[in-house]
Amino acid sequence: MSQPVAQEKINKAPTSVPDRLFSSLSRASAVTILLVLSGVAFFLTIVGWSGMFGDIEGMSGSDNFLEYVGPLVFGTVYSATLALLIATPLAFAVALFISHYAPRRLAQTLGYVVDLLAAIPSVVFGIWGITVVAPLMSKNVYPWANDNLSFIPFFSGTASTSGRTMLTAGMVLAMMILPIITAISREVFLQTPRLHEEASLALGATKWEMIRQAVVPYGRSGVISGAMLGLGRALGETMAVAIILSPSDGYFWSILTNQNSNTIASNIALKFPEAYGLDVNRLIATGLVLFLLSFGVNMLARRVANSGFSGAAG
Amino acid sequence: MTANSEIDMPAQTAGITHSEVTSVEPAIAVNNLNIYYDKFLAVRDVTIEIAPRSITALIGPSGCGKSTFLRSLNRMHEVIPKAHVEGVVQLNGEDIYRPDVDPVTVRRRIGMVFQRPNPFPTMSIYENVLAGMRLNANRLSKPDADEIVEHSLTGANLWGEVKDRLDNPGSSLSGGQQQRLCIARAIAVEPEVLLMDEPCSALDPISTMAIEALMEQLKDQFTIVIVTHNMQQAARVSERTAFFNIDGPGQPGHIVEMDLTEKMFSNPQEKATSDYVTGRFG
What we know:
The complex is a heterodimer of chains A (314) and B (282).
Chain A: H1 2-11, H2 17-53, H3 65-101, H4 104-117, H5 122-140, H6 142-149, H7 166-191, H8 194-202, H9 207-236, H10 239-244, E1 247-248, E2 260-261, H11 264-271, H12 278-306, H13 310-313
Parallel strand pairs in A: 1-2
Helix pairs in contact in A: 2-12, 3-4, 3-7, 3-9, 3-12, 4-7, 5-7, 7-9, 8-9, 9-12, 11-12
Chain B: E1 12-13, E2 16-18, E3 28-37, E4 40-50, E5 55-59, H1 66-72, E6 83-91, E7 94-95, H2 103-109, E8 110-113, H3 125-135, H4 142-155, H5 159-162, H6 175-188, E9 193-197, H7 205-218, E10 223-227, H8 231-237, E11 240-246, E12 253-260, H9 261-266, H10 271-277
Parallel strand pairs in B: 2-12, 5-10, 5-11, 8-9, 9-10
Antiparallel strand pairs in B: 1-2, 3-4, 3-6, 6-7, 11-12
Helix pairs in contact in B: 3-6, 4-6, 6-7
């Protein structure tokens, strides 16, 4: 007999003062987020408009906007893709090790350390990249890759002696997005139903076979959405790239040279302090492009994640 | 239940009442098996023999260790960290716990069906049946694969229901069909023994009947050991029944009595058994 009463309580709008206070507070927060987001988009569009379609004579260089932003978009996507190619297999392996191989204590410690990576400020990553990774790679790895692999276009050109290359930037970016991909992969791997793991083991699967048969298919979409979130972060990363990369104008496929397409975010950071007039609008317009790019990637990630952990939903 | 004429020579062995008539070599012989979770002794001192190509039921109250015992027969027990056993389990005369025996090879010879149907959700019906075959690295030709799928699904009484939709996901089937798919998957690798851990407890009565009928057919080919909470089921399907019990919480489970099923349900040697099968406890 308590059920109808309880039901009534649930259906009724909250009446007590704290209830109402909390509900309006949370509603206000939600609205604020929407306002901020649309405000940013609005600002970027309004201010960037004249950067996109304004008088080219008023800007440094005489390219039209598409010619200006093209190499930047290319550099942004290229560096982020490199980072993703390096980070995803690594994150996948680390996540599997944590979820299925490491003894409990080691797994916990390792998970904690990987999460700590996410707490390092990007400017520190940038300094690490330019002072440690770049010299190390340009001395030991790049000349070798350049000598032996230059038949692959990516490794052609004159190898950089400073190490301020697209590959260095990609490697440092990879370290920066490693934690999020690892954390999400680890969670989905841990969620693999015991039932499926045991089904595989009972068929006579070795541990690795079990992982391929039960764990990986179950976690696949989780890994993909983790990688997408990582890609979103890599696209917008500013300081590390600004510090490491030696940028040039144009499209460059080679990842070992001093000539590299800059990224949108790093280009803004480098040029904004000295920009004036329509150049400012143009930089802001490139910001709008980056905003849309990240937005698209995040939407894609959301869609993949919602399509269910392929296993669970199937 | 009619009294069976071949059951009148009880034999006493090692403390437990154990009247067993096996003229043939046992498929599985268990000797003084103690099963541990870390330091906790879960099941103590089990000594039984399981006859080939017949159904042996393990019954007993919850927590008495019958599932634990079942899982120790194909070394699935040790999937749980720190779980281990002492004693001997012989499969056709070979000790499966010898240090140089790989649990993986044991599990390929002793298949298992679980309490809840667990087809791989990302695989089609077809691929589910072949899941075990795919583990034996060597490549299967398409005609061979087709034949194994048809043969196994037919063996699991499922072929007629799914032959037109083999590419659908395994999870698109009903619970009872999923369980028969799991049986098809288990028998596809042609194991010597099939372990079933309460295979019908998540199923409706109709599906349960289908599985029981299937077990009746399968026992011509396989040695079947089934754990069941359902005493009627044990009485219906099994030739022999082992009764497990537990003295109290925290105590190890142990085997009280094992005998031909008719005898266990009509005239058991131990009072605990008769109390349990008549529904006085458990």
